[in-house]
Design brief:
341 residues; alpha/beta; Four Helix Bundle (Hemerythrin (Met), subunit A); 2 domains
């Protein structure tokens, strides 16, 4: 990693966001990652917390309270299987005892962490593959293009050479947006005219990136609904064409999921995994309106690595996924109960 990337405010300088405060004014302090994550999961934590408090303030832990707890977990999108497993674990050594809401929240955090820990895996760039090809997929509005820009900035901060390919040829705005990200991050950029062949663009981008010895190639694709067969067929074509240049590419296929969609995320993973061979997930828009419990259900059902989560629009608002932080935030634990940092 370059020395600049270790300095405070590196991304702010990179993207021109650190303007000097006006005379007599103080810049608002940037919230820690924990506080941003805690706020982003506020809706789910509040829903779980109020339900747990209502159940366990005056009642013992028995069959009825366990059923009520399971209902709350299911309503928070944790999924039927995960909810049943968590309730069974919580009730095992506490049955017919008086337990506090805080005890239940702590137990909930521990059980959620156990589900998430196996999928909390970093995205590893294999330096032996030049370029390391990352295909980005997702439905309309999931934050895919913005996520590509943030990843490009992070890879550049690590000293890697990066190329961005604007494979969302349906939207001129997506092409322009990615062009701006590439300029700010110092990445090479390739695009075609609006409406051009996305598969052909991917072929040309990989050919050029290989010839230039680029470290990473990030390929954007058009947002598509998982139930639109024509668009999914086009995505399959992009994968086939990429493999004409490199039979092992894409080396990573990341599905970007909008955290506000809840249970619909399950069908998205199923469809994109079948068509594009999804290797990992990125969850965006954990901004306070999110239904963050769905990430727990996805981890249990698919076991796909969760590489990054996003809590805002800034580059520093996309961070590697940490199971413990997420579990404690979703359970509504206080900051001093979470891992420092």
């Amino acid at each position: 990693m370059s020395e600049d990337s270790k300095k405070p405010g590196f991304f702010g300088r990179l993207f021109g966001r650190e303007a000097a405060p006006a005379a007599g004014a103080e810049a608002a302090p940037k919230l820690s990652w924990w506080k941003r994550l805690r706020a982003g999961l506020g809706r789910t934590a509040s829903q779980l917390g109020s339900g747990i408090t209502a159940i366990f303030t005056t009642r013992k832990l028995d069959a009825d309270t366990l059923q009520d707890l399971e209902d709350i977990l299911i309503q928070a999108d944790l999924g039927v299987e995960v909810s049943a497993r968590i309730v069974a674990a919580i009730g095992k050594d506490r049955f017919d005892r008086t337990v506090s809401p805080e005890d239940i929240k702590a137990a909930l955090a521990a059980e959620v962490e156990s589900v998430l820990e196996p999928v909390a895996r970093p995205l590893v760039i294999d330096a032996g593959r030049k370029p390391f090809v990352i295909l980005m997929v997702g439905v309309n509005g999931s934050g895919k293009t913005t996520t590509i820009g943030k990843l490009a900035a992070k890879f550049r901060a690590e000293g890697r050479s990066v190329m961005l390919a604007a494979g969302d040829t349906f939207r001129a705005a997506a092409i322009d947006q990615l062009r701006v990200w590439s300029e700010r991050a110092g990445a090479t950029f390739m695009a075609r005219e609006q409406g051009g062949d996305a598969a052909g663009l991917a072929f040309d981008a990989l050919t050029q990136a290989r010839a230039e010895g680029r470290d990473v190639l990030l390929i954007d694709t058009a947002g598509r609904l998982q139930n639109k067969q024509g668009l999914m067929d086009e995505l399959a074509k992009i994968v086939r064409v990429i493999r004409k240049v490199d039979p092992e590419a894409p080396h990573a296929c990341l599905l970007v999921l909008d955290a506000t969609v809840g249970q619909n995320a399950i069908s998205q993973v199923e469809a994109f995994r079948q068509i594009a061979g999804v290797t990992g997930l990125v969850m965006t828009k954990l901004d306070g309106t999110a239904r963050g419990g769905i990430l727990v259900a996805l981890a249990e059902k698919f076991g796909l690595p969760v590489h990054f989560i996003g809590v805002g629009e800034g580059v520093e608002d996309l961070e590697p996924f940490e199971a413990r932080d997420f579990a404690r935030a979703i359970a509504g634990l206080d900051e001093d109960e979470a891992r420092p940092g």
